[in-house]
């Protein structure tokens, strides 16, 4: 039965903290290289700006529906979430599992490749030797120092984000080409010719960014009603869209310069930073980028290990450290093999194909079936307009009893 209790306002700080999780997950080391923005938006000209904003809108709307579905029904895992979304075809949930693990593997490969590229750029270390060095470092940290890396990863992430955005702002103002003149010239030349590609890229980018969904629903449980979920995601949309558009603006302004440098498009933000000529910023950015990419690889692999070391195939190994080392080594070797393709190819093809899968199994289902199921459910239960968490609890419990799902 629909209730008419008053909707409580979600505190801004609570919503901001949830929105910031998606922001930090999106705007990490991979984003800071500039390769993602260069691959998906810069070549589209003025429509690339529209595409970047649309991608962030699609991503945050998808996360909003996922959080509403997760919180309103009192779910406890992303497996339950996707079984609820796909019900009565619960087994389709495996499609997200496939997407998630492939995408995470690509993210680790991109982190190793990005770090190896940075070593090549700073110390002229051969790329393949760099991949081997980074792989060994990540393996050692995963086995012996994962706790330290996890504790420091937030600070490293913030450091690279502040440094990268500083480069974007300085780069926009120091460029010989005004961003407005660049956009105007592109509009005169291409008109709306790139719009279909821009729309596809928006969906693709949002698709592969949905790999952050398990993290978001876990962190978003503090949002106790529908308006709270929406508020958190609108805040996140503004943060993500501004950061992404700034990076696209800066790269567009310098595109003709960094593309003329050999290897300049692999880490275009670093290339531009060197050309601008601020040595201190080059040193800080390079250090932060390298540490952030390595920490991304370590924390991601550690999550992999925690899940896969319990598989029956490893049951014969009694020592937990040995089990962890074997699983870590296998994942790192696989990631290093993928990283041989190079950062640009991983982001263009690896992320791209994962993005297509993400569109099919996450974005479109949540923005169609998910919206319908959430609206129907919230009309009949207390989540949408509960005065307090206690009022929603009976409805949540009755739903769980009526629709039992298997825990992950």
Layout of strands and helices, then pairs:
Elements: H1 12-26, H2 29-32, H3 35-40, H4 46-72, H5 78-86, H6 93-123, H7 127-144, H8 146-174, H9 179-190, H10 195-209, H11 213-219, H12 226-258, H13 268-276, H14 279-308, H15 320-339, H16 343-380, H17 389-402
Give the structure's gist in a few sentences:
The protein is mainly α and 408 residues long. Helices cover 78% and strands 0% of the residues.
Radius of gyration: 22 Å
How many strands?
A: 0
What integer is the average pLDDT?
87
Specify the biggest β-sheet: none
Q: H/E series, N to C?
A: HHHHHHHHHHHHHHHHH
Kindly state the percentage of residues in helix.
over 70%
* N- to C-terminal distance: 30 Å
Q: With helices defined by DSSP (H or I, 4 residues minimum), what is the helix count? A: 17
- Strand content is under 5%
What form results from the Cα inertia axes? Answer: globular
Low-confidence stretches: 386-408
Could you walk me through the main structural features you see in this protein, from its secondary elements to its overall organization?
The radius of gyration is 22 Å and the shape is globular. α7 runs antiparallel to α15. Residues 386-408 have low confidence and may be disordered. With 408 residues, it is mainly alpha-helical. It has helices at residues 12-26, 29-32, 35-40, 46-72, 78-86, 93-123, 127-144, 146-174, 179-190, 195-209, 213-219, 226-258, 268-276, 279-308, 320-339, 343-380, 389-402. The chain has 17 helices and no strands.
